[in-house]
Structures are given as structure tokens and as C-alpha cells.
Amino acid sequence: MLFVGIDERLSIKDEILLTIRRHVQNGPFRRESGGVLIGRELIEGNLVVVEHMTSPMPRDRRGRHFFDRRDASHVVFYNELNKDECIYAYIGEWHTHPERSPEPSVKDLRNWSRIRGEDFARSVQYHAIAGTYEIGFWAFGPADKQVSLMARRKWGDLGL
Ligand SMILES: [Zn+2]
Questions:
Q1: Distance between Cα 46 and ligand 1 center (Å)
Q2: 141 to each of 82, 112, 116, how far by Cα in Å?
Q3: Residue 121 has pLDDT above 70, yes or no
Q4: What is the Cα–Cα distance from 27 to 98, expressed in whole angstroms?
Q5: Domain that holds residue 81
Q6: How far is it, in rounded angstroms, from Cα 150 to Cα 160?
Q7: Confidence (pLDDT) at 117
Q8: Which of 17, 84, 102, 158 could be bridged to 131 by S-S, CB 3.0 to 4.6 A?
Q9: b or e along 115-149 (b: 16 or more beta carbons within 10 Å of the residue's beta carbon)?
Q10: How far apart are the CA of 97 and the centre of ligand 1, in A?
Q11: Domain count across the chain
Q12: Where are the alpha helices (DSSP H) in 99-138?
């Protein structure tokens, strides 16, 4: 899936979307899932390719209506990818919502704002929220607390 971000385009690999779709909360007892999105910035074509991600880990805190990424393994995975050559960038977070068409909650916006204040290089993060019917991608930045919906796609239209 391809969409236009802030002064760049993003390409989300099918395997990433397929993994996220597996976590969709399509049953009454399924808890929220989440993790981080990791990609490469291709200067040519101004393209960001999201090709790695993490999935829920044992020490994350999860409930029907919350996901707190607490397990250190997410960061360990990211550092491991960059061990030899530092070519992978932190792109943003993904998590699920038990609703058809996801919208960021007040807590999500607080969380995204906190992440933007951390020492990541990029000035804009892209966060995905996966609902049962659609997935949405929001840009956070470049201005503080600037949130913009970048793309919204029905799972059925993604050709996965
Ligand atoms: Zn949320």
C-alpha cells in the first residue's frame, strides 16, 4: 500500500499489513495489539519503505481498550536491525482498536506527543490504527501536536 505523507511517500509492505490484520479485534474477547513500524528512507523518489515491525511481547500491557508498549524487546529488535549499518528508521507505532473505523483516542494523542519528544531523528512519525473494517495512518508533526490523517483503507480493498 502506498500513500502520500508529509513531503514524502510511504510504501507499506504487504507482509506488514498482513501481520497487523492478523491482530484485528474481530472477536469480543480479543485484546488490543501493537508494536513499532520500522523502515528505510530512500532519498531517491522521496520514499519511505516500511518493511519491519514488532508484534505484542510478553511484558506489554494489553486489554480490550488499551495497549501499552512496555516490553524492551521492541527496542532491542530495532537496535539489532541497526547493529551493522544504521539504515533503519523508527517510523511510528501501530495498534488495534475494537471499532470498525479507528480514530485516535486522547490517550493515543498523548502517547504520540510523548514519542515525538524522544530522541528519534525524524521530524514526522506515522502511526497506524487498525480497526475491524479499515486501517488508518496518521502523521504526527512536523509541528508539535500536529496530527493529520494521511490514509484510510478498507481491509477488503488492500488486495492482501
Ligand atoms: Zn488507541
A1: 29
A2: 24, 10, 8
A3: no
A4: 9
A5: 2-157
A6: 20
A7: 85
A8: 102
A9: bbeeeeebebbbbbbbbbebbbbbbbbeeeeeeee
A10: 6
A11: 1
A12: 106-116
How much distance in Å is there from the Cα of 92 to the middle of ligand 1?
Answer: 13
Please state the separation of Cα 28 from the chain's center in Å: 23
| Mean per-residue pLDDT of the chain | 95
State the catalytic residues.
32
Query: Is the pLDDT score of 97 beyond 80?
Result: yes
Question: pLDDT (tens digit, 9 = 90+) per residue, 80-90?
Answer: 999 998 899 99
Cβ(137)–Cβ(151) below 8 Å: yes
What number of other Cβ atoms are within 10 A of residue 39's Cβ?
Answer: 25
Q: How far is the CA of 25 from the centre of ligand 1 (A)?
A: 12
CATH of the domain at 32: 3.40.140.10
